């Protein structure tokens, strides 16, 4: 098993769910206002979610190690 206790992707707290909803909403908003064709907007959304998918688990793992879980 991975050393990150949050590696399964479950939403465990209300705060975590709210943060994920805000990030998805922000990604949708940024892609919506982009002055490009619809397919570039989809690509921008996917790219934002990809970057978020790399940063968020790293931050969770760092916080978990700091708490000693």
Write the layout of secondary structure elements.
Blueprint: H1 14-33, H2 38-67
Helix pairs in contact: 1-2
- Shape descriptor reads elongated
Give the biggest sheet. none
Average pLDDT, all residues: 83
Name the helicity range.
over 70%
The count of strands amounts to 0
**Structural class category:** mainly alpha
Question: How would you sum up this structure, described in words?
Answer:
The protein has 69 residues and is an all-alpha fold. The protein has one domain. The chain is built from 2 helices and no strands.
Q: How is this structure best summarized?
A:
Helices cover 72% and strands 0% of the residues. It has two helices and no strands. The model has no long low-confidence stretch (mean pLDDT 83).
Task: Please describe the structure with a list of short key phrases separated by commas or semicolons.
69 residues; mainly alpha; 72% helix; elongated
């Amino acid at each position: 098993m991975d050393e990150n206790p949050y590696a399964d992707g479950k939403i465990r707290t209300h705060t975590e769910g709210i943060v994920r909803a805000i990030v998805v909403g922000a990604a949708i908003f940024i892609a919506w206002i982009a002055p490009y064709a619809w397919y570039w907007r989809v690509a921008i959304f996917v790219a934002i979610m990809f970057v978020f998918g790399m940063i968020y688990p790293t931050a969770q793992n760092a916080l978990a190690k700091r708490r000693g879980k």
